[in-house]
Amino acid sequence: MRNRSGLLKMFGLCLLAGVLVAGILFPVVGLAGVVSNQASETVESTSAELADEPPPQLTTITDKDGKPIATLYDQYRVPTKPDQISDAMKWSLISIEDRRFYEHNGVDWKGTLRAAVSNSSGGDTQGASTLTQQYVKNYLINVIYRNDELGQQRAQEQTVGRKLKEARIAIQLETRMSKEEILAGYLNVVEFSRQIYGVGAAARAYFNTTPDKLDVKQSALLAGMVNNPAVNDPWSNPEAATHRRNVVLDSMVDNRKLAKEDAERIKKEPLGVVPGGPNKPAANCVGAGPEHGFFCQYVEDYLTTHGMDADELYSGGYTVRTTLDREANRIAKRSAEEQVSKTQDNVANTLSLVKPGKDRHEVVALAANRDYGIDKEAGQTIYALPSSTANVTGAGSSYKIFTAAAALQQGAVGIFDSVPSPGSYTSTRYTNGGAPYTVGNAGTYPGSMTLQQALATSPNTTFVHLVDRIGMKPILNMAYKLGLRSTMTSNAANGGPVDPDNESNAWSMEQRKFYGPRENSRGMPSFTLGVSPTNPLEMANVAATIMSGGTWCPPTPIAEVTDRNGKPVQIKEKPCEQAVNEDLANTLAVGMSKDDVGGGTSAEAASSVGWSRPMIGKTGTTQSNASAAFVGATPQLAGASMVFKPDNPAGGIVDAGPGNVYSVGEGGGNIFGGKAPARTWFNAMSKILEGEPPRPLPQPSPRYE
């Protein structure tokens, strides 16, 4: 019975061979011809996929000078040409997987028929796959269907139909590619273990060498892994890896590619892999390290929200040259750490820097006191602290920038006009859940002052009074236009202030209760006090917009993107736009130019570093001193520093001086925007701009004076 089954299997495979030859060498008539033609179309389609879909490659992220900072990948692969692979590697693989590789035309009929007889009791056609056929299968699994589990399953089915398709494609490949190209192709797509694919990456990861220098011992280990990478992993299962390596050595002896005495000698030697695990780069932004990880994360987030999906980014083999200034980033991080310890529980200090301009706003640095990474016990985090609203609380009175700008735009007041600053003020237009909305000042102020003085000294009552005069709609609009684009969108999604020009935003009953009646405007007066979660990078970009004559540009981290062939790739970035007219922006800049001098809220921090450059600035502090911010700019560089509680917003923050800033679980603190945030900003900016000549601020326009 067993022999009869084997004969039937042999007969079936002879028919299979006939169909293959018939479908390739001459047309077949009748039903067989229809089947053959349909199969040919499928094979042609798959062959085209193999030609058009290149293997995944890692993407390299660099600084502005092209020096790498990180790699992104799902499959760690180093492309390798045929002449870059050692003969030892080639013959190790051929000896164990396909000894007649140079003799067949893609399908080894002798081996296939012998496997059919030996496997007759199993009822399948497994075994005897040539390297060309394995190349096809591995390409389908690791390239074409790498994100398609069902497709991968179909590519490994032990059926005559799947074998037929695989064999036909293999024969076609043999007519299009040389043996050396097929061998190298296989060695470039095959999986080893631990996200390592291809012999180029394996040589580096396992032995810290290049594929052209792989010796027999190393090659035998790698060749032995391909049939079951997980089981033969040399670090997790060295005994299995050693056994499999020795089987390969024996096959090389049988194939007359290695002397028996050499094989026996090598069998006694250790595996020789690098200790502790593979030598390969991290697969994501953790590889950028504690200092550059936040910038890398922003690059990834930026690209995936501007036309490139994550899979494309992690497999496309791109080179992304960024706008990162390593030295500026180093100084920014050091300044943030000097104010708040990196291991301080539940206190983050960020500094985001943007270069103003009318054609681009390039992000120069994204730093935090915390290190970027996955070791929570060491204070590390992978939250995008300097460039996201996630885990970030309010920016406080720095939002008064938007109220002042809207009041100027509406013609309600000039920058040098007198505005009231009473000790207490109750809104005449808005309520707080039906009760009167009343605010007081954190300090003593004269009964009135100019709007410029109000921006420098920050009385709450002045700006709530301005909210009553012009309404919330122009203020929310101004915040969006000047740069809080994702901040406003994120807050709207979470029930906060919405984009006033988007009428599709629903005004729920909960929002009515929280923000007051809708009337003809949206929001509430406390928006001007900066209670909403705020993206620190966007606050820096607000300052850049003002310093750019009112021109808003997206805060871009991208200098250039090229594909795996070195060709430029266009990123779908939003164009720059004139957010407000230049006269208004210039006048607002003059209005913000007194924060660092006289009685300005950041004067002490500025004086501590001997600051003398023309600049604009605004501090901010939220209720109970739970967070604080400083936003400022010179004509050359804009930035925002924010100190907040990322893990639990309850309670305040105490500022007892540089390096002694800590969280209070309950009750209020004593931090203000003029303390740690301003010190962080001035300490960093004074060093980054050292040696650059000061530039003057623009002149105000009589229209807004």
From TrEMBL:
The keyword Hydrolase applies. One of its GO terms (biological process) is proteolysis. The keyword Hydrolase applies. Pfam families: Transgly, Transpeptidase. It comes from the Bacteria. Keywords: Carboxypeptidase, Cell shape, Cell wall biogenesis/degradation, Glycosyltransferase, Hydrolase, Multifunctional enzyme, Peptidoglycan synthesis, Protease, Transferase. InterPro entries: Beta-lactam/transpept-like (IPR012338), Glyco_trans_51 (IPR001264), Glycosyltr_51/Transpeptidase (IPR050396), Lysozyme-like_dom_sf (IPR023346), PBP_transglycosylase (IPR036950), PCN-bd_Tpept (IPR001460). One of its GO terms (cellular component) is outer membrane-bounded periplasmic space. Gene3D superfamilies: Biosynthetic peptidoglycan transglycosylase-like (1.10.3810.10), DD-peptidase/beta-lactamase superfamily (3.40.710.10). Residues 361-636 form the Penicillin-binding protein transpeptidase domain. One of its GO terms (molecular function) is serine-type D-Ala-D-Ala carboxypeptidase activity. Residues 66-252 form the Glycosyl transferase family domain. It catalyses: [GlcNAc-(1->4)-Mur2Ac(oyl-L-Ala-gamma-D-Glu-L-Lys-D-Ala-D-Ala)](n)-di-trans,octa-cis-undecaprenyl diphosphate + beta-D-GlcNAc-(1->4)-Mur2Ac(oyl-L-Ala-gamma-D-Glu-L-Lys-D-Ala-D-Ala)-di-trans,octa-cis-undecaprenyl diphosphate = [GlcNAc-(1->4)-Mur2Ac(oyl-L-Ala-gamma-D-Glu-L-Lys-D-Ala-D-Ala)](n+1)-di-trans,octa-cis-undecaprenyl diphosphate + di-trans,octa-cis-undecaprenyl diphosphate + H(+); Preferential cleavage: (Ac)2-L-Lys-D-Ala-|-D-Ala. Also transpeptidation of peptidyl-alanyl moieties that are N-acyl substituents of D-alanine. PANTHER family: BINDING PROTEIN TRANSPEPTIDASE, PUTATIVE-RELATED, PEPTIDOGLYCAN GLYCOSYLTRANSFERASE. In the N-terminal section; belongs to the glycosyltransferase 51 family. This is Membrane peptidoglycan carboxypeptidase. It comes from Prauserella rugosa. The lineage of its organism: Bacteria, Bacillati, Actinomycetota, Actinomycetes, Pseudonocardiales.
